[in-house]
Amino acid sequence: MLDIKFIREHTDQVRKSIEDRGVAVDLDQLLSLDEQRRKKIQEVEALKASQNKLGRDNIQEAQGLKQRIKALDPELEELETQCQDLLWKVPNVVAEDVPVGKDENENKVIRSWGKVPKFDFEPKDHVALGEALDIIDIERAAKVSGTRFAFLKREAVRLEFALVQYVFEVLSSEKILKKIAETIDKNYSPKPFIPVVPPVMIRPEVFRKMARLSESDKNERYYLPQDDLYLVGSAEHTLGSMHMDEVLEEKNLPLRYIGFSTAFRREAGSYGKDTKGILRVHQFDKLEMESFVAPENSLKEHNFLIAIEEYLVQSLEIPYQVVIACTGDMGAPDARQIDIECWMPGQNKYRETHTADLMTDFQARRLNTKVKRREGKLEFVHMIDATAIAMSRMPIAIFENYQQKDGSIRIPKVLQKYVGVSVIKQGKE
């Protein structure tokens, strides 16, 4: 959430950000409630001061003041609750370079890399390739679990874990990260990422503190009422909340994690979209980066994580474009969102495979995650999350871009040592 003091001092900026996002938040009501709350606090504090002055000299009058204070407590509590409820609905202030727009159609392409492949045959989509090679089975998954599920088999499974191994190798290599960091700033920290397998269930109150469980998106989540737990939609949800109510030492920042987990999504808002194949499914595995940084380094860290995403996709030799999301296509906690869209020959267009979100201190303020500066000052940390590899998306890009005329699929060079073969061939029983 935003600091209420910041909202009071930068009302026009916050109001414009709300309007640009196209969300409905009554900022005037929030400011009015905040003013009432502060006046009520002043009234209570004045009464307490008078009570302290009386001490034991006038017990009867002191008791009267105590009763007045007690009567004001429910009023103050109600104002605090109303303020908090409205404050949690105010989205983050967008960064200066974020374009104003209503939806994904108004996102802006920043740059592109690689050449779109030209085939001397009619390229197939990943579904046709997967079925022919017996590495994706959607029909049997539908019998077992329903729509938007799939069995991955044979080399598709080995490819997934090859991607996992490759990402861990890159993100644990200070030498590789130094090379990537130098593209941002020659002196920027190449500190490796800590591998984590986080929980895939999260308590509702923690999910709300992550600003990923609101009235607008709760239908996207899978809820387990008997346990009062949600299944996560990404490893970031439990990685980001891992240091809730903690104070991190400045000397340990940036603190970087790479988490592997299964992600669960209802895809509630995608009725009729991408119903074929594994592009948009209810369950998929994902590698997610999460960083905790000092406020002055958050933009550099955001760009660093984006550079890592680009390094991974370039090393897989997949053509892509980098896109900055417009105000109407960003999540409420995001100050800046950059996507990578990889070329998908089976669809003849670029599709989103990666997202990198800069949250500033929006989540940390709700989670109460702070940094202790070297001189002793406490501040809220800045948080950034970014996709390393989403297993429902990158395998599609590999299958479709690396397909051969005979129906086989070549394995990217950097993955061959993990997969154990260089080509996925036909002829399976």
Overall 3D shape: elongated
- Individual helix count: 14
Number of strands: 18
The CATH topology of the largest domain is BirA Bifunctional Protein, domain 2
**CATH arch. level architecture of the largest domain:** 2-Layer Sandwich
Rg measurement, Å: 26 Å
Mean pLDDT: 93
Tell me the major beta sheet: 8 strands, mixed
Helix content: 25-40%
Strand order, biggest sheet?
A: 1-11-12-13-16-10-9-4
Tell me the CATH superfamily of the largest domain. Answer: Bira Bifunctional Protein, Domain 2
Provide the structure class: alpha+beta
> Are there runs of 5+ residues with pLDDT below 50, and where?
none
**CATH structural class of the largest domain:** Alpha Beta
Number of domains: 2
Strand content: 15-25%
Cα(first) to Cα(last) distance is 55 Å
Would you kindly provide a written description of the structure presented here, covering whatever features stand out?
This protein has 2 domains: 4-87, Serine-tRNA synthetase, tRNA binding domain (Helix Hairpins, Orthogonal Bundle); 104-424, Bira Bifunctional Protein, Domain 2 (BirA Bifunctional Protein, domain 2). The protein has an 8-stranded mixed β-sheet with strand order 1-11-12-13-16-10-9-4. A 3-stranded antiparallel β-sheet has the order 5-7-6. Strands 8-14-15 form a 3-stranded mixed β-sheet, with no helix packed on it. It has 14 helices and 18 strands. Helix 7 (155-171) crosses helix 14 (413-419). Helix content is 38%, strand content 21%. The longest helix has 29 residues, at 59-87. The protein is elongated, with a radius of gyration of 26 Å. It is of the alpha+beta class and 429 residues long. A hairpin with a 5-residue loop joins strand 14 and strand 15. 39% of the residues are buried.
